[in-house]
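User: Predict the full complex structure for these chains.
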Amino acid sequence: AQSVTQPDIHITVSEGASLELRCNYSYGATPYLFWYVQSPGQGLQLLLKYFSGDTLVQGIKGFEAEFKRSQSSFNLRKPSVHWSDAAEYFCAVGLSGNTPLVFGKGTRLSVIA
Amino acid sequence: DGGITQSPKYLFRKEGQNVTLSCEQNLNHDAMYWYRQDPGQGLRLIYYSQIVNDFQKGDIAEGYSVSREKKESFPLTVTSAQKNPTAFYLCASSIPRGTQYFGPGTRLTVL
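Assistant: Here is the predicted structure of the two-chain assembly.
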């Protein structure tokens, strides 16, 4: 079955430190990939997406992600975290057409001074 | 502005009541989706619709019903058969192979 794994339930980083959130998927074909962010009580906002081409994808708010086919991974990175980045982050995977995305369970990011 | 609206933002239900959550989009998207979110569970798919007058069950459809009479609207009814409906409900829409865009959500609480 198709699945998306976010191994880290909760991560705490210091403001200004670098960040990497992990995402692994299990699909037979190359999927298209997304990272979303959710603030408490809000909907999900798209950070970035990968469909094809350059495997390093730039997103909003200074985030980037790298697709590694050999590792079935799509990890999210940010070189310097701001306190406003504290939120929940979801990785999602899709296959084709309008089939629904499959979401990971999310990683909650806390930022400390 | 284009986007997805959900109403109400907060909804309270008594035991045995049916309630309907509204979702409207003006993005001209063909597909629409309903998700349920519980703490630590991520997003679980309830129903989705790829075209008007057609919809498919997701992973947790029991106790829920939907309709898709207009392209812009995809209301979700939480029936009395849903035994644990307290959750955060998210609606989304997309074009084929496109990004899913999400509404702001409705928080449903059973009293």
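Chain A touches chain B at residues 9, 32, 34, 36, 41-46, 49, 51, 90, 92, 94, 96-98, 100-101, 103-106 (CB under 8 Å).
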